[in-house]
Design goal:
537 residues, alpha/beta, GMP Synthetase, Chain A, domain 3, nine-stranded mixed beta sheet, five-stranded parallel beta sheet, 27 strands, 25% strand, globular
Length: 537
């Protein structure tokens, strides 16, 4: 395509998303955010209001002592305060560690300690969980609260009421902006470092995949603690001048369809699980007419051909899959104007030299399975794993960054996903590390050994399944399985708990004693007759 051939990155030496994007949008008196609360009430904000509020937040956070370069954990729900905090910290040049609200104290303490965070910005809803991590994270000096007051916290709302505005500190494009933590597999989660250049480069994804324009209302439904929220909720659409939707409520298929229709969303980005459940609704194209919706994309894993066909029949729109990772951006995608081959990942996006490579780093021939690699150092690629040079180097093979996924390319340059080369589970919109769930299970007195894999599921792509070897004196039963599930919900994030538990006498292992999860995964695939979910964005 001409866009790919003529594309080149143009990242300035100095860049700050708050000043160079948000403040420029603040000069335009038009809708920038449509917030829908849990009761369904709508709260529109124009760009001048949004820009001014982020400057007030920046002044308050500065006056509380947060300086350029300090690490700040952000643990906020899908409310405007999340946007304000993220943009305000960008203004200050602080380093943001976005975290999911579902993380438990142990997860939060690890991220705070590893990133050397000095501050946590939390919400009244998660204040009790954060308080549990305090003794485990002695380096955190400030606890800032949104949504109310609590002992040991500084309430932000009273400080914001009469706050001045602060434009922020200058930032170079190569300075650190985010540390986003991955799910751990056999080790602790890794801290993915992105620089300010990453925030500038996101405009390319929004233009070529989201197809966003100033006339659009874009809704990306990702939660606030994930890399996708940075990409598609915030950085991408606003880089293109689009207004965005932020919905505080949870996911209900019929309610979601009502909102897409009633809010008059024009560009939609959802997880495959959400599309799958919506596609099961009766009379999809009859009950819901979506004349304003013009473009749909999917992020998380490949969509079933049946879902693609159902959506196309109902609304005349083809959902475009995209592939990327926390460590990078949209690397391979089906984009507007391109022939879509159902089941294909698409082709490399502009600015990304992506190929399937062999063990020596040579590009594979069409049809040959190999590792997905990115050549060079585009600004969308992470700067490395924080305080983990060994893992950073391990992700490289010569000139290639290896994504950890395997694929093949056809004669026309389309990529076709084959499987993951590690054990991360893609379930719904989440990526879950088996190590975290196995560790939680092993804390229960009944568990001697455990292995966790993804088991194919029609709606979620995969579910978390645990194989458990019990200690002597314990007997397998539905009641014990339920007890282990509830235990995992308490110890780790609720979305990580094993939805299926199978009690076994032993686990398959290598000669060195390592558990062979691959054998368990393959057995699940044979039993359920499905294909594995991928590592899509």
């Amino acid at each position: 395509m001409a866009a790919e051939r003529n594309f080149s990155w143009d990242v300035p030496a100095e860049f700050n998303f708050a000043r160079d994007v948000v403040d420029e949008l603040g000069k335009e008196d038009r809708l920038g955010l449509l917030f829908v609360d849990t009761a369904g009430a709508r709260h529109p904000s124009n760009f001048p209001e949004l820009a001014a509020e982020t400057r007030r937040w920046a002044a308050v956070l500065r006056d509380l002592g947060i300086q350029k370069g300090e690490r700040v954990v952000v643990l906020l729900p899908k409310i405007p305060a999340w946007l304000y905090a993220m943009i305000a910290l960008d203004r200050l040049g602080a380093v943001v560690i976005p975290c999911s609200e579902q993380l438990r104290a142990k997860d939060l303490a690890f991220r705070a300690n590893h990133s050397e965070a000095t501050t946590v910005i939390g919400h009244l809803s998660n204040q009790p969980e954060v308080d549990l991590m305090r003794e485990q994270a002695p380096g955190v000096a400030r606890y800032l609260l949104v949504g109310g007051e609590a002992e040991g916290w500084t309430a932000l709302e009273p400080l914001l009421r009469n706050a001045p505005e602060f434009l922020g500190n200058p930032t170079r494009s190569d300075e650190m902006a985010y540390i986003v933590y991955t799910s751990g597999t056999t080790k602790d989660p890794k801290g993915v470092v992105h620089a300010h250049a990453y925030t500038q480069a996101k405009s390319s994804q929004a233009k070529h995949w989201l197809d966003a324009t100033p006339a659009d209302l874009v809704w990306c439904t990702a939660g606030t603690g994930w890399a996708k929220s940075l990409w598609n909720v915030l950085l991408g659409p606003w880089s293109c001048g689009s207004a965005i939707v932020l919905h505080e409520g949870g996911f209900d298929p019929a309610q979601r369809m009502d909102l897409i229709r009633d809010l008059e969303v024009t560009v939609l980005c959802q997880a495959p699980t959400e599309y799958r459940l919506e596609a099961k609704l009766d009379d999809l194209g009859g009950r819901w007419k979506l004349p304003k919706l013009r473009h749909c994309v999917s992020a998380g894993e490949p969509l079933n051909p049946e879902v693609l066909a159902r959506w196309k029949d109902a609304f005349g729109l083809t959902i475009l899959d995209g592939y990327g990772q926390t460590e990078n951006s949209l690397l391979v995608a089906n984009v507007p104007g391109m022939e879509v081959r159902p089941g294909s990942m698409g082709k490399p996006t502009p600015g990304h030299d992506v190929a399937v490579v062999d063990e020596e780093g040579n590009e594979c021939e069409p049809g040959e399975v190999g590792d997905i690699g990115v050549r060079g150092d585009p600004p969308t690629l992470f700067r490395g794993y924080y305080k983990n040079e060994e893992e950073t180097q391990r992700s490289r093979r010569g000139d290639w960054y290896l994504t950890g996924d395997r694929a093949q390319v056809d004669d026309d340059g389309y990529f076709w996903f084959v499987g993951r080369s590690d054990d991360v589970i893609s379930s719904g919109a989440y990526r879950i590390g088996p190590f975290e769930v196995e560790s939680a299970l092993l804390e229960h007195p009944a568990v001697q050994e455990s292995a966790v894999v993804g088991s194919p599921d029609a709606d979620r792509g995969n579910i978390v399944k645990a194989f458990v070897v019990l200690r002597p004196g314990y007997e397998a039963s539905p009641a014990l399985a339920k007890e282990l599930q509830e235990h995992c919900k308490r110890v780790t994030a609720p979305y990580k708990y094993p939805r299926e538990i199978e009690f076994v006498a032993d686990l398959p292992k290598t000669r060195s004693g390592k558990i062979r999860r691959v054998e368990l995964r393959q057995a699940e695939l044979r039993k359920k007759g499905a294909t594995a979910a991928s590592g899509f964005v």
